[in-house]
Amino acid sequence: MNTALWIAAGLLAAVALTGGVSKTFVPRQKLAATPGGAWTGERGDGFVRTLGVLELLAAAGLVLPAALGIVPVLVPVTAACWVLLMIGAMRTHLRHGEAKFAALNLTYLAVAVFLAWGRFGPASFTA
């Protein structure tokens, strides 16, 4: 169980890192031209960059607290926050008719639910 939870955390961290870097450092106009990025054309630069920074923080929060042994309860808390982020992402992609991206977000949401459940419950770091 512990190994599966570490794999889930690593996968979500990689996804968050990728999304965070692109939203933080790639110009919004370029993002808007990519598949699944049309929504960025409707938002301001500040909003998109803020979302990117939050994703970078999520990437760190999914792995570093447990790896460093400093407040490891932040791992399932971050996973629970990721669930909320994915709900918003799914709604956004569905509004733009991008069902395949919404399905991908649903997959990430399921992994985050598994991680939050596992780290709050049977394989918590305090057990």
UniProtKB/TrEMBL annotation:
Residue spans crossing the bilayer: 56-89, 101-120
Chief location bin: membrane
InterPro entries: DoxX (IPR032808)
Cellular localization per UniProt: Membrane
GO CC annotation: membrane
Keywords, sorted A to Z: Membrane, Transmembrane, Transmembrane helix
Transmembrane found in the keyword field: yes
UniProt keyword Glycosyltransferase present: no
Protein name (Swiss-Prot/TrEMBL): DoxX-like family protein
Organism ancestry: Bacteria, Bacillati, Actinomycetota, Actinomycetes, Pseudonocardiales
